[in-house]
Amino acid sequence: MLSYLIQRILIMIPTLFAISIITFVIIQLPPGDYLSTYIAELQSQGENVDIAKIEALRAQYGLDKSMIEQYWFWVFGLLQGDLGFSFEYQLPVSEVVGDRLLLTLILNFTTILFIWLVSFPIGIYSATHQYSWGDYGLTFIGFIGLATPNFLLALVLLYFANVWFGTSIGGLMDPFYIDQPWSFAKILSILEHLWVPVVVIGTSGTASMIRRLRANMLDELQKQYVITAKAKGLHPLKALIKYPLRTSLNPFIADIGNMLPQIISGSAIVSMVLSLPTTGPMLISALQSQDMYLAGSFLIFLAMLTVIGMFLSDLALAWLDPRIRLGGGASK
Amino acid sequence: MSNTHFVNKNHFDPNKEESLTPEQERYYLATQWQLMWWKLKRHRLAMVSGGILAFMYFSVIIAELLAPYTLTSRNTDFIYAPPQELHIFHEGSFVGPFVYGLKYQLNMKTLKREYTENTGIIHPVRFFCSGDSYQFWGLFNSSFHIFCPAKNGMLFLLGTDRLGRDVLSRIVYGTRISLTVGLIGIIFSFLIGITIGGLAGYYGGWIDNLTQRTIEVIRSFPELPLWMALSASLPITWSPILIYFGITLILGMLDWTGLARAVRSKLLSLREEDFAQAAQLMGAKPRRVIARHLLPSFTSHLIASATLSIPSMILGETALSFLGLGLRPPITSWGVLLTEAQNINAVELYPWIMTPVIPVIIVVLAFNFFGDGLRDAADPYR
Prior knowledge:
The complex is a heterodimer. By secondary structure, chain A is mainly alpha-helical. Chain A has a domain at 101-276: Orthogonal Bundle (MetI-like fold), CATH 1.10.3720. Chain A has helices spanning 2-28, 34-44, 51-60, 67-79, 93-97, 100-128, 133-147, 150-165, 184-221, 224-231, 236-247, 250-274, 279-288, 292-320, and strands spanning 85-86, 91-92. In chain A, helix 6 runs antiparallel to helix 7 (133-147). Chain B is of the alpha+beta class. Chain B has 2 domains: 65-162, no CATH class; 170-378, MetI-like (MetI-like fold, Orthogonal Bundle). Helices cover 55% and strands 14% of the residues of chain B. Chain B is built from 15 helices and 5 strands. The longest helix of chain B is centred in the middle third of the chain and has 37 residues, at 167-203. Classes of the chains: A mainly alpha, B alpha+beta. Chain A binds chain B through residues 14-15, 18-19, 22, 26-27, 29-31, 143-144, 146-152, 155-156, 158-159, 162, 169, 260-262, 264-266, 268-269, 272-273, 283-284, 287-288, 295, 298-299, 302-303, 306-307, 310, and chain B through 213-214, 216-217, 219-226, 228-230, 232-233, 235, 311, 315, 318-319, 322-323, 325, 338, 341-342, 344, 346-348, 354, 357, 360-361, 364-365, 368.
């Protein structure tokens, strides 16, 4: 187990390295840099542009150096916890992002919990009641969830949350709590607002999870050991939970890793529509104004979230499923 | 002991022992594609979905004829008009399909535009008629429509938007862009996936390792933020058509990984088969072995899985355009239309602005069911 852990961590390092290169290339792709956008903006407002001052700024931010130097500068900063400088806000990135990274984490984690809690009972029901009305109905709802664009579902649900429960529009908490210190009431307010994005982001993931669990369960339920158990007079519930359910639990751990990129993508767009104080909305404005270090930090944060999540789900799978042999060598 | 054995001198006819009915013979002689088609025909949901898709793609060709108005025709008197109900009978007598006129009133309290049906005015729908003039695919001028509003009348079956443009017509035009984005994107991803997966699977070794690691890195990026970043980097100076191809390229560039993996794993096992070795020994170049001998054995499977990844591209384009990072007007896709529904007011006051989502849902579901059917049909073990 320990050697597997070390091996898995060692694989992560080049992956993260490659991710940092890709991120850097992407944020450098747009022609020009923040300063040229800034100059164009000043000129369009009819203001004079002081060339010497611009050059000084360029040197200060290291924009006059070569790409490779800029990259190393950025990566070493990241390793030391320095996320760089946001041009637009004229503040260090770490101060601009503030709570956003934490709230993103909370949002995604809650979504995963939601997917688990919802798809687990529904999947079992669909498998044990195959081809019943309930099975068809739930499958149909799942398909609709899969096919409806997230952002629109978010808008509609937000509207009804407002009409039915009086939840304030947009944001992750009532405006009253925004600059307040953390308190119980603030957490309650967050919970009240959290369910809309969580349900919206979770729908498509839940749909595919239900399908996987249903298919796995159906395979298991037809096996002879289940028939034997039933023939011996084991209680039907026990004959369901004790063996077939346990073996078909794999997707719950394995698929979360595969679904993470999808969940994080979903949360990014839903946050923009609902203007949640997570990474999504700020990422899009940073991309549009070429605030490269800010955009880069968000991209790298989201990618890291995925990689680490996959790593954790791999570990959990290896730990929980006795059928998985580590280190290879057994087959071949 | 005499060592003789008996051999029947009569000619042996295998068909006499085990004669094939014409049906069986037809089955055994059928090509791979015929078998697939027969299997697909039995899958009713897939056939219906295929029919819907065929109709949708046909409407891409004749969008100008199908839409009652043109993309830009404005009816400034009817801004944010609600969908009109289509009637057939007027006061108990048969008139044919028609709509009642609209009466406009500004509610001075809420400042909301209110439209009421004016049952005194009848606007019959005209068929095969001449309406607003347009350029068919930008080639020649025409004003022929399959159906259009009454002369000096109106026909807003799905209402109008903030500039008084007919939503239904705009959806029909949007089909052209939204459906082709997925198709062109999948062609890109197909080409990249087959080339890279083919190389990795055929050569193995370090090429295989390198592509595997690359695919892992690409897959660990959340798709949408990456799409957003890439499409934000398309220069603003580009023309809308260039942006359109840029977006399809971006969608295809991140989608090929699944396909490449499928091609690779198939090739890894197939290249050991006798027929592949024979081709190699006879001196065929790798390109010929891959394209001529190996790929055809699982093209059907590849096409099925490609069909299943078109919907995610359509949804991706819709999301990007919705955020203002994808296509921009005057290019009109379903996502561009939905940008109008970006705020909560639209949901409350003008819910018909959200109707472009209906074709999105239908197309995504149809592609899913059709792809499922294709995959089952392409699977020889079912």
